[in-house]
Amino acid sequence: MAKSTVLSLCLSALRRYQMLSEGDAVLCGFSGGADSVTLLSLLFDLSKGEGELPEFPLYACHVHHGIRGEEADRDEAFCKAFCEERGIPYFSLFADVPKLAAETGDSLETAGRKVRYEFFAKTAERLRRQHPEYKSVKVATAHTASDNAETVLFHLARGTSLSGLTGIPPVRDNIIRPLIDVTREEVEAYCAEQGLSFVTDATNEELSYSRNRIRLEVLPALEEINSETVRHIAKTSAALRRDNECFDAMEQTLLSRAKLSEDTYSVPVLAEAPDSVLMRALCSIMWDYAGVCPESHHLEETLRWIKGGEKFKQIQIPGGAFVTLAKDRLLLRWPRDPEEPTSRTFRRTVTMADCLEYVSMEPTPVTVRLTKHRMKPGEFGALQLENSLEYDKIDFNFIPRTRAPGDTFRPKGRGVRKKLKTLYQEAGIPAEARGDLILLEQDGDIVWLEGFGAADGSAVGDTTTMFWTVEVER
C-alpha cells in the first residue's frame, strides 16, 4: 500500500511538472537518509520502464561534508554499497565544509548546500560531455512535502515576501524534486514496507538548529490542530507559486519598459505600476546593480518617493551603492567623494538652428537638448516656464557643464546670488547627486541650473514669444 501511494505521488509530480523528457538522464543526490533512499529506490524502478515512463540512465552522487567523523564515513559506505547492489553508477566527494565555512563566513548549513549543488552541477556537466546522446542530465533531490512545509514556516517566521512563501520549487533549471508531494511519514512507511534500511544523521535531533525545531516541535503542534497541515501548506505554496509567476511576468514587462540604460530607469514608467509590482521591480533593480538584497525600508522609501512625485532624493543600500531619484530618472551609482565634481566633456551632435544637442558619454551618458519655440505667452505650461530661456538672451557660445569650485547662481525671482552648495543644501539635494547636475554657462554666468531652472535675467517674461526649452536626458 505504501509503495503504491508513494509511487503514485512521485509519478504524478514527474508528469505534472514535466520533470523528465525523452532522452534525459538522472543524477540522484544520495545522502543515505530515508528520503534519498526512497527517491533512489523509486528512480531505480522507474529507470527500467516501470510506471509507463521511458527508460532512462540513472546515476547517484554523495557528498561527505567532513563534519560528523565516523558517522559520516558510515553514511558514505552505506551509500556506496546500496548503489553497488543495484548496479547504479556512483560518484562521491569529500569536502572540508567547516574549513570552507570559516573562510567564507557562511554557516555550516549554507556552506554544505553550496558544496552539494556545485558538485551536482559539475557531475551532471561531466556526464553530459561524456554522453552527447543525452538530451540533458536532470539532478534529482529528495525534498518532500514535509521539507516544503518546514521551509515555508521558516521563511514566514523570519519575515519574507511572496516568493518566500512559495516554498521549494518542484523544478528549478535542471534540478527536479519528484518527492515534493510525499510526506515524511509516507517515506518512512515506504521504507518499512519495502524493507529498505537507511542511515540517520544524529544532528537532525538537535534543537539548536531552527529547521529541526520546526520539524520536531512546530509542525507536530500544527498537526494536532489539523492532521493535514503539511498537505495544506503544500497546496497554499503551490497556489502562491502560480501567483508569483504572474507577478514575475508583470515585473519583467515593467523593467523592460522602464530601463533606459544599465543604471538608469524612467520614473514616470515606474510610477504607473501597482505598488506590489513596483516593489518587486525595485528589488530586482537594486539587486542587479549592487549584488546585495535591499532591506524592506529601502524599497518602501524609494516607492514612496516615486509615487509621491519627489524630485531629488537619495538612499544608500547594502553594499554601498546609492539609489538616487533625480526628477524623472532613477539612478544607481557607486559612491565617490561628495565634493568631487563630475568631469564631463560635451560634444555637439546637432547643428540645426532650432535644435541644439550636446552629448557627454563619461562617466555615464547624458544628453542636453535645447529646442527653439515660438508661442504666445499665455500658452506657457509650468514645466516650460521652469526650463525655458529667453531666446534673444542666449547666443550660441553657451557651455553645458557640471559644477566647478566657486560657482554661484541667481535663482529667478529671489533677488540673491548663492553658491551652488548652499542652494543644493537648502533644496535637500543629496551630496552624491550634486556633482552630476547639469548647468549652462553663458559669458561666465550660469543661466540655467538643473532642478532650479533659468537664472534671473535669462528666464522668459510676460512678453516672451521666442524661447529655448532645456531638456536633460540620462
- Helices and strands: which structural class? alpha+beta
Give the name of the CATH architecture of the largest domain. 3-Layer(aba) Sandwich
Poorly predicted tracts of residues: none
- The beta-strand count equals 22
How many domains? The number is 3
Q: How can the largest sheet be summarized? A: 6 strands, mixed
CATH class of the largest domain: Alpha Beta
Question: End-to-end span in angstroms?
Answer: 66 Å
Helix % is 40-55%
- CATH topology name of the largest domain: Rossmann fold
CATH superfamily of the largest domain: HUPs
Describe the protein's architecture and organization.
- The chain has 474 residues and is an alpha+beta fold.
- It contains 15 helices and 22 strands.
- It is elongated.
- Helix 6 crosses helix 9 (229-258).
- Strands 3-2-1-4-6-5 form a six-stranded mixed β-sheet, with helices on both faces. Strands 7-8-11-10-9 form a five-stranded antiparallel β-sheet. The protein has a five-stranded antiparallel β-sheet with strand order 12-13-14-22-15.
- It has three domains: 2-239, 3-Layer(aba) Sandwich (Rossmann fold), CATH 3.40.50; 262-333, Uridine Diphospho-n-acetylenolpyruvylglucosamine Reductase, domain 3 (2-Layer Sandwich); 347-473, Phenylalanyl-tRNA Synthetase, Chain B, domain 3 (3-Layer(bba) Sandwich), CATH 3.50.40.
- The protein has helices at 2-16, 34-46, 70-86, 97-104, 108-130, 145-158, 184-194, 210-225, 229-258, 267-271, 275-290, 296-308, 382-386, 420-427, 431-434; strands at residues 24-29, 58-64, 90-94, 136-140, 171-172, 175-176, 259-261, 264-266, 312-316, 322-326, 329-333, 347-350, 355-360, 366-374, 388-390, 399-401, 408-409, 418-419, 439-442, 445-449, 453-454, 466-473.
